[in-house]
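Anyone up for a design puzzle?
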């Protein structure tokens, strides 16, 4: 059904002419970090009160135009403006879908990694997500192995739930339960202070964006720059 609807939209935007470009971007992260709310915000431009639980994977589609539009500094020499459909593949982070997630890792143009700013473990988990995608995915126009775990496509990291993190901060809590646990274990003499629990934030933070999807807040300009980057490599 999704593919038929997308083909119909292609024809409507092009007056029956050549099909639009199609760019596939994975949206991944642990269950509960707000991926579905974020995709809804990026596609619809508004928040969603009660996002449904993602079963396997859902796809949101955003239309954008990019290319040579006169004096635009982002235009590509010799290339006219072209319509693109950005397919945002919202992959469930629940463990029950772990064995079948590779079915959605096909012909990837880019990846959006999402974590919950009030739960540090979700940032640490992004390394696992990158390794899983790099090992089992196939990629359109791969760039090489410059990304985390050898990921060969552009990516961005979005820290969601700034609203919740801010509220916890006003109560004197950073929301970093891992640090609190480590300090407690050290006080009990069960762990030398020189050692750390195995949960660390080693994932690249370059290109990080802050968001509060439930409050319809995200740096849309930064996200659009990322989408336009995808269309460049797609060509």
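Challenge accepted. My sequence:
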């Amino acid at each position: 059904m999704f593919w038929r609807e997308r083909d119909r939209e292609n024809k409507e935007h092009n007056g029956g002419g050549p099909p639009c470009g199609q760019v596939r971007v994975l949206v991944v992260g642990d269950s509960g970090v707000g991926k579905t709310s974020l995709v809804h915000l990026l596609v619809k431009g508004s928040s969603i009160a009660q996002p449904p639980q993602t079963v396997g994977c859902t796809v949101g589609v955003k239309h954008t135009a990019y290319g040579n539009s006169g004096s635009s500094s982002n235009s590509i020499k010799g290339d006219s403006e072209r319509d693109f459909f950005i397919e945002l593949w919202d992959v469930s982070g629940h463990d029950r879908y772990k064995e079948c997630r590779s079915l959605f890792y096909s012909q990837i143009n880019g990846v959006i990694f999402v974590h919950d700013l009030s739960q540090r473990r979700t940032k640490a988990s992004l390394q696992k997500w990158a390794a899983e995608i790099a090992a089992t995915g196939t990629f359109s126009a791969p760039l090489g192995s410059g990304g985390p775990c050898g990921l060969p496509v552009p990516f961005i990291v979005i820290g969601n739930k700034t609203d919740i993190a801010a509220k916890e901060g006003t109560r004197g809590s950073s929301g970093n339960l891992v640090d609190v646990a480590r300090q407690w274990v050290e006080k009990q003499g069960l762990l030398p202070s020189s050692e750390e629990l195995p949960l660390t934030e080693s994932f690249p933070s370059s290109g990080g964006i802050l968001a509060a999807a439930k409050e319809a807040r995200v740096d849309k300009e930064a996200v659009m720059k990322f989408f336009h980057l995808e269309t460049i490599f797609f060509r």
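A detail worth pointing out: The beta strands are 21-28, 57-66, 82-91, 110-116, 155-160, 208-212, 217-218.
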